[in-house]
Amino acid sequence: MLRYFLSIFTFVIYEQFCYSQSEGLLLLSNRDLYQNNFTALISNDYQIFHQWNHPASVHSTSYFFDDSTIITPLVIDNPIMPIPNHAGGRFQKLNWNNEVIWDFTFFDTLFTPHHDIEPLPNGNILVICWEVKSAEEAINMGRQNISSEIWPTMIVELQPPEGNIVWEWHLWDHLIQDVDPSLSNFGNISEHPELFDINLNGPVSFDNGDWLHVNAIDYNEELDQILFSSRSLNELYIIDHSTTSEEAASHVGGNSGKGGDFLYRWGNPMNYHRGDTIDTRIVAPHAANWIKDNYPGGGNILIFNNNPNTSNTGSSSEVIEIQPPINFDNNYIINEDESYGPQTPIWSFGADSSFFSAWQSDVVRLKNGNTLITVSQQRYIFEVDINDNIVWQCHTGGNLNFMGYPLRSTKIEFEWLNNNIKDSFIENKYKLFQNYPNPFNPVTTLRYDLPEYGFVNIIIYDLLGNVINQLVNEVQNSGYKSIQWNANNNQGHPVSAGVYLYSIEAGDIRQTKKMILLK
Fold first, then answer.
1. Cis (ω within 30 of 0) for the bond into 73?
2. Do residues 24 and 410 touch, judged by C-beta distance below 8 A?
3. Separation between Cα atoms, residue 448 and residue 433, nearest integer Å
4. Could you count the other beta carbons within 10 Å of the beta carbon of residue 394?
5. What is the pLDDT of residues 67-99, one digit of tens each?
6. What is the pLDDT of residues 198-230, one digit of tens each?
7. Cβ–Cβ under 8 Å, residues 88 and 56
């Protein structure tokens, strides 16, 4: 409950202000013109500050840590399971210098990782997997109308560097059905929202048994709970991570006392017979994640709702923020015969044809209260403030010249960077561009970027180091600047043709370039 009041207090405070674009670096995994796979830190002016290279495509996104390392899920070339699209199964940790800290694989004939991972505070990673169940196994659990295998969701906690399983959860242990009274999982589905109806939905692909198509996973350290979203079932789910693996396979144990059963679900109450089509709130959702507790809206959940149209047609997406109904004991509230709340989001943006992606995509809350939105299909990333103004945007093709689609992205705050890296970034942000035109006669323009307010010197020298002209010697605000030089010296006299140097000096930073004067 304390967390609830802190969330409300923070929301009230940040509602009183309007923020510009956030500071920090965009973390984005993609491909370049030569099909090289990489993860990059990118400044607000679209400059790549740092890059890690990968031996294969990144499966969703890399995760950055305050020791300047990243953990990356990678695509494998030859999955054992019959998956026509890219399958995951390789995991790698790199330091700042692109050196491998650990690298392991995890896949088999009966399971394959896919989509997303979630690094944990203890150094382990949570991994979403498909696991194979035969048609016979499904029929024995009460599944109707099935002729081939089905792939329910499995979540494992893997411990690097070998990737050993230290915790696991299987949806298969939490099924219910209402068609065969002779089976042990027979029951009234509406009376058990904590369980999953095995007869929901058909496999979403004619080529395989993909069932829920879970696409994102997140972890809440305070609650010790896991959140994941299902594209095919139009729903998100929360389970208890404080259980042992044995408890996770049962209906008792853990902080909740409910074992591995659902603690909360939202988006489509038809799935547990407490609603109908009109009650479906999200369609093909992605990227469900908790907002960090110390950020505006802390403890709430963000969702990229790929297609608000309940018929799953159209060309408009939205992002929404919900506040789960949670009590003093951190239990999620649901009334008898009703669905889990809330009935409506506390904030939404979009659903007006301004952006659309039928697949993937992302939404994250930033420390200053802005929200970063990744629209994968349109290769578009933008940041909105609390008044729904777009304060920054990036077209990854046009602005960055990236070839691939941006699946996920986030902003890395400067406070996450160690001092040496931070100082290096500031130094790189003082940028002196090549003069234009060059060669020139008799006027050229010098352009430069200042990352912060401060005293600036721009001086022209001859090749002997003599000062020819001091063009700038004053305090300036941050921003993009330009100044012209008309080939005169400090006394206003024309200088002779030749090669000249021009430099920018600001604080401890100095950058120099050459230019050629023709006559």
1. no
2. no
3. 6
4. 22
5. 999 999 999 987 888 776 668 999 999 999 999
6. 999 866 555 678 999 999 999 999 999 999 999
7. no
**CB-CB contact of 142 with 198 (8 Å):** yes
d(CA 463, CA 456): 22
What's the CA gap between 431 and 481, in Å, rounded?
10
- Report the C-alpha gap between 484 and 501 in whole angstroms: 14
**Residue 51 CB-half CA count within 13 A:** 10
Rounded CA-CA distance 375/361 in Å is 5
pTM of the complete model: 0.81
| Closest of 459, 444, 447 to residue 517, by C-alpha | 444
Beta bridge partners of 499: 516
> Which has the closest alpha carbon to 414: 41, 25, 68, 50?
25
- What is the rounded CA–CA span in Å between residue 471 and residue 479? 18
Q: What integer pLDDT is reported at residue 202 of this predicted model?
A: 67
State the Cα angle at 345 between 339 and 350, rounded to 5°.
130
C-beta atoms surrounding 433 within 10 Å: 16
Q: Identify the residue with better confidence: 367 or 36.
A: 367
User: DSSP labels for 351-413?
Assistant: -SSS---SS--EEEE-TTS-EEEEETTTTEEEEE-TTS-EEEEEETTTTT---S----EEEE-
In the block, residue with structure tokens 């933008």: 382
Token pair in block for residue 39:
């993860």
Pairing of strands 409-412, 25-31: antiparallel
Please give the structure tokens belonging to residue 198: 């095995």
DSSP secondary structure letter of residue 6: H
CATH topology of domain 430-517: Immunoglobulin-like (2.60.40)
Q: Which of 14, 13, 22 is nearest to 364 (CA)?
A: 22
Alpha carbon dihedral 327, 333, 335, 340, in 10-degree steps, equals 150
